[in-house]
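User: Some background: our group keeps a shared notebook of sequences we're curious about, and every so often someone picks one and asks for a predicted structure to add to the entry. Today it's my turn. The entry only has the sequence so far, pasted here. Could you supply the structure so I can complete it?
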Amino acid sequence: ILISAVGDCTLGDPAGAERAPGSFHSVHEKAGADMSRPFSGVIEVLDEDDLTIANLEGTLTRAGHRSDTAFAFRGRPEFAAMLSKGSVEVVNLANNHSADCGARGIEDTKASLDAAEVGYFGLGHVDKRTVKGIEVVNLGYTGGRLEVREAMAKAVRAEKRPENLVVVSFHWGIEGEHTANDIQRKLAHAAIDAGADLVLGHHPHVLQGIEVYKGKHVVYSLGNFVFGGNAQPASVESMIFQARFKKTDGVVRPVGTEIIPVHFSGNKTQNDFRPVLVDDETSAHIRKNIDAYSGLLPK
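Assistant: Of course. Here's the predicted structure to add to the notebook entry:
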């Protein structure tokens, strides 16, 4: 089974900015309102895997937004189709923007995902599905504090069996920081100690390092992907992280990983909200940066 993981996906804009030049909504309309466009630059990769996991950073609703947060991310409910057309099968909802439009926004987002046949996890929900004969369990947490460690480890232990695959996603770390912190590392190690097969991270909006702990991979930050939260990012470097697993004699084991470097916008100065694959030279540069970030992990 081949799993792809991508980072923060905001299918919308900061509420109130939908009509601004260069906004996600305006770019979508100018492109002919094509729901397949956002992931079309990487669909050749995501369409060939067995499961794609993303972080859905924001809401899909027409509900009013909260006024007590600087940025309330909101997109139209029908934008959930962008995920299904982009071969994204399941998304994490455990993040600091899931409640940007209150409780109704959360319920509308779930309903939108259900209508598009996209699974979700986090906020107390577990996604379980069988892919090529292997049960895959996705758990999601808004990390960044050690208080979630005990409940997370308990949930992992309850779900993990030798014949299945448990993936834990954390929304953690410090925005703009390429260096993972000690809390991230403690949470990641606790997840793997409890039985997790793969740990995925997001929230910093930039790439962070990758660690192998007890033979399991921790991707500390996947960076941005289809990210409507910033129209003019300082850097567009990102990646698709792929992990392959195989069941042998009733036991699921990791058999390899791959980093596929991307730019999360084809335009480096004005976000066009369409990740693209990059040439060999750019790919080598992004890989070198990830190696450098991996060398900065806390000991």
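Suggested note for the entry: The chain is about 25% helix and 30% strand. The chain has a mean pLDDT of 96.
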